[in-house]
Every structure is written in structure tokens, then in C-alpha cells.
Amino acid sequence: MSIHLIDCTLRDGGNLNNWNFSDQAIQKIIEGLDGCRADYIEVGYVGGSSSNKSSFQGKTSDCTINFLKQLPKTIHSKIAVMVVPSVCQLDQLMDLGTGTVSMIRLASYPHNAEDVYPYIASLKNRGFQVSMNLMAASYVDSQEAAKIAQKATLCGADVFYLADSFGSMTPTCIDEYITVIKNSSHCAVGFHGHNNLGLAFANALQAIRSGATYIDTSFCGMARGAGNLPTEQFVSALSHWGHFGTNYVVQPAIETADYVLNHVLDQPMKISTPEIICGISNIHYYFYDKIIQSVQEIPSVHPLEISRELGKLRPPKVDVSYINKAIEHIGGIWNENENTERTS
């Protein structure tokens, strides 16, 4: 079984710095990944991320053709981009060519998965390798995830990704989902794990044992909240273990991670109360600050109590109205602040 490593530092890591990677950082990250023989480098979004409306976003938040053509040339690694159909029209991708980008990853939530299927068929016909990334996979059961994977495969998807967006899934859960998907579809399976409960690595290993052949990582775990599985750990551990037959090169991975830690990140990734509570509760990390604001009005209620109730609602986006419903369910009061924010 061949494992394919997709590093998404420049894409998912941009949630921490509004995708403001310097030209030097972009070059060093790409050269380091090529040196360690990562299979794919996901360099950013095309068409926007849907999650961050800041006017100070960097180049990798919406990769232009000129940007993609000027990237450092790679020997071992292929270039991937992510597209979110809810914010990027299919005709916006017409200038993309397979000579510039090898893989296009199409991201959706379970509630809008139908939007992705026409993109899969169109991009596959144009010669791209296509992946469907199911974000918030924990919001549907394994059977529903398998149905989505089946439809994606019929449209031509090469890979179907489970994204543990809230870091709430466990190895037992991962095994169930991937086993059901593999039994009902011939599509390759990938796994993207967040680290809220410190399970990103354990979940990735279980995913591989259960039949997944694509794994997402990022240097230093760089991503929102508790972050992702660190590239340097995955490369080093699998090389040291020697169990999966990988041919990664460790030194470029750890040297590039050191660069990211000291020159890109403001501080190391951490797992603290907000990340843990969101993981336990199966909710988006961006909810936490809004929950804290609500708790100030209800001092007798712990954030964990609201978060757990909120998780039961499976909110499709980060919106205070869902917090209000959760508070109402536990006998609290309503928060009048109705500001909303999209999930990523």
C-alpha cells in the first residue's frame, strides 16, 4: 500500500496568518517539501477560502495563474490547490491547466455536497486528478459519508477525503468510516485530522491501517485551533518506523519545520481549553469566543455545557443563533448579538 502525503501548510496554515506568507517562506516551504519527497504540496485556494473575509489576505488565499506559474519548480512533489464551490464558480477555473496544477481538491460540507459533483466531472474531463474533501465529516454517520463518496466516485473523483474538522473523531470512529467507505466505493480514501484532542497522529495511523492512502499534514501543525498533524512528525516517525515502506527524507522536513517555527509562526501551536472543549463537543473552533461572550451573561453555566449542547445541533455555519438555541435547550437566556461568521 502506497501512502501519499499532502502538505497543506500554505493553504490550511493560512488560517493563522491570513495567508500572508512571504515570498521567502513560500519558496522555503515548497523546496523543503520537495526535498523531503512529499507527494503533493497544496499551495492555497483558487477562488477564495469562504472562511475569512479580511482585506489583508495573502497570495495563497486565492492563487492566481501568475502566482502558480512562478512557484519554485519541484522534482518529487506535485502541486495541488483547493477549491470551495460555494465561493468559486466553475468558470473561474478555466485558466487552470494540468501543466501548472496536478490535483484539485474540492471542499464541501455534508449539507452542500451536491454542489461539488458537477465540478468533479468537469475537472476530471480536463485531465486533473480530483479529490472531494468532506469537511465536518463527523456531522454525518459512516453510511451517509459512504453515500457521498459513492456519488463522488461516479462523477470521477480519484480520492475521497474525510476531514475531521473539529478534531472530535477517534481511531474507532475512523476505522468505521473508512471501512464502510472502502466497502462501498473503489475511490481512494484520504484523511485530514485536526489535533484538538491530541489524536491527529493516532487517527492518521488508524486511517492508514483501515485502507486510507492519502494523509494531510502541515509544518508544525500550522492551522486554526489546535492545528493539523505536523509534517515533520509524520515524515520522521514513518521513516524511523519503517513499517509502511515510505521513502521520505527526514532532514529537509525538520529543517523546514524549524524555519516555519521561527520565521512564520508567532507562537507554537497549542492544545488548551478552547481546543479541547471544541473537540469534545464536536463544534467548530470559531464558536469558542462567541460562547465565552454568551457565558458572561450566564455565569452559572460552564462553556463546556453550552458547547456540548451546541454540538448536538450540528450547526452548518458559525452563527450566534445556534448558540442561542443551545442556551435555550439548557434553560439559559438568549444572547442578542446576532453577528455571524462562516466556517472554514
TrEMBL record:
One of its GO terms (molecular function) is transferase activity. It comes from the Bacteria. InterPro entries: Aldolase_TIM, PYR_CT. It holds the Pfam family HMGL-like. SUPFAM superfamilies: Aldolase (SSF51569). Keywords: Transferase. Residues 3-254 form the Pyruvate carboxyltransferase domain. This is Aldolase. It comes from Paenibacillus roseus.
